[in-house]
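Q: What would this chain look like folded?
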Amino acid sequence: MPKQALEVADIFRARGPIWRQAHAGHISLGQLKVMSAIEACRSAALGGHVLHCQSCDHRQIAYNSCRNRHCPRCQGSAAHRWLEARQADLLPVEYYHLVFTLPAPISDLAYHNKSVIYTLLFKTAAETLQTIAADPRHLGARVGLTLVLHTWGSAMTHHPHVHGIVPGGGLSTDGKRWVSCQPGFFLSVRVLSRLFRRLFLERLYQAYRSGELRFFGEHRSLANTRNFDHWITPLRKIEWVVYAKPPFAGPEAVLAYLSRYTHRVAIANSRLLAFDDRGVTFKWKDYRSKQRFRHKTMTLKTDEFIRRFLIHVLPSGFHRIRHYGLLANSGRRDNLKRARELLLEKTDDDDAIENSVIDSPASETNEIPEPLQPTYICPTCGSPMVIIECFERGQQPRAPPPRIIAL
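A: My prediction, written as structure tokens:
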């Protein structure tokens, strides 16, 4: 895979030490760890190994990756591994994509209360979907959903929202039927929006009363109960954005979407255009523009670019991909098995469905599993490569080959 002309790591290596010194005392330990990991990624600082092709005698050095979840270079392989595990969870039904977004005033408050407010966002979005879906006036079924947290807009500003991926139906309350939604329509976004707003504000107020929220800067006055009540009142009257996209075109499209969204970071290396005395120039999409072409370029001062990148560092141990309802980890296997049984009963004369993703895994059939692909492929002849030497952090191989390629 060709190396990007410009990467976030290049910017951090060039300006990171100066930026850290200038902002000493105002950077969290988590942000410092992310910067250090990205700067060291795919370099001799993390060690690596020497690869040798036994067919053409080609050699190359492969440096170790940092595997930090905020590193743009490391998320591709992480997403691939995650998707392989999710393929077995897909059902032969329409899938829907919904987005729950927090209003700007709460997004601002979330900057210093990430763990509390992001958790509320997850729980409230999940409860909203499950509550409305369980209502007989809407669907009358127990549904499963996967939620993915994104905290950024295209310009890397702080914009917390969750993407929900939901099968178009669920199990009846007695577990004896599969209840499908109307073709092309899952649930009313207006109804979802109203319940989402009410539930979130109720839980936010509970978090405030229990002392879970912290206030700094322009929000310092909200520590006073009267001021907080005055601040939260308008949020009960405005419309909250819950957006529903058209259903995916089959399970394959769901996987393609997830591969782009589940392990995305604030900005991909592919969006970077230039890094010079003016700052960092990158591509972004202006969603508010009513013009035909929304794709634009933006140049930020390097210090501001680093600041915007780091505001999206998640609290340590915080999970940004979560499963609820039928897809919750505790009962996923049994729930999916029951769903497949019921779907087969509904489509027992449809051969196409019977041969789709609802079939048993390969380990339970007579199919011969595909042979494992080699981990390393020679860029010269395409043959497998083997590791002939490993070297530790900060070291170099004993006899470096003439051509060095960082994978």
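The two ends are 7 Å apart (CA to CA).
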